[in-house]
Predict the structure of Exopolygalacturonase.
Amino acid sequence: MGETKTGGAKIKRKVRSGNQLVQHKRVFDMITSNLCPPGPFKGYLKAVEDLSRYGSSDDWIEFREINRLTITGGGTLDGQGAAAWPYNKCPKNFHCKVLPTSVKFVRMTHTVVRGLTSLNSKFFHFAVLQCANFRAMGIRISAPKDSPNTDGIHIERSSGVSISQATIGTGDDCISIGQGNSQITIHGITCGPGHGISVGSLGRYPNEGDVKGLVVKDCTLTGTTNGLRIKTWANSPGKSSARNMTFEDIVMNNVANPIIIDQTYCPYASCSSATPSRVRLSDIKFKNVRGTSSTPVAVSLDCSPGVPCRNVHLNDVHLDFSGGSPAKSACDNVHASYSGTQIPPPCA
């Protein structure tokens, strides 16, 4: 993987040509304000399949508290997740034990990741946690459409994050923007299969941070089970908000639920809904979203009766139902405005 310098010490991580099996977790943990970028990563790393080898760890490779790290070179990380997916109980169990994420970036600053490929992660492919000024570009992510919880890139409690020119096909969200994020830019993403590009889920845990300053632009989604989705849990234990979010210049190709706000999100057979979601959504724009919907309802704005969505604006939306009949809109507890083309027609 090249050479990293920190002070007078040198740490070498070399990946030769061909396949290499990394049998246990690797942690790169160096706090420095002058870290030289390592050389290109051109290897093919395979994660061990045996889950017992990970112990209590919830990741395979972790970069932590590094300043000015650059990873380039077109290498491949193969999580070999197929053998582990049957042990993933999270789609059915709220208190499940999560499987290892392939790569985590934790409390990083000024990070650049370019040209990597991630295949068949056991859980998330990449997780960006508590990072500042993180840029990823030209990443390719692939897992089968029925692989559970294989989110492409999950971002949480981070600021100044840019993800661009990525090709992502997974069994879950192509990109998920979790709680506590600010100034996030998603640009030039090709997504599908998967669950689309999602904000959330939000409101599951106490003391979640707000989401603010999101731009999703120039993306193409094909055959996904959702398009642009904002999802929050009902019965949320605390108050939070998500605001100032723009989704612009998006193409949908036979996508289910192309535009969806779901404030009664529940991935299980049933969830407690004694109280409505306490996540306040506001200042949301959908601009120039066009293409085809595989579901009759192409625009669904299902907001919380406790804190209705405010200042939601749709401009130049043209989504035809691929089934032949006219597409529809569905709205509840939302203060929305419209301009330009509106197909389907706005809610009455």
Notes: The chain has a mean pLDDT of 90. The chain has no helices and 30 strands. The radius of gyration is 20 Å. The longest strand covers residues 240-255.
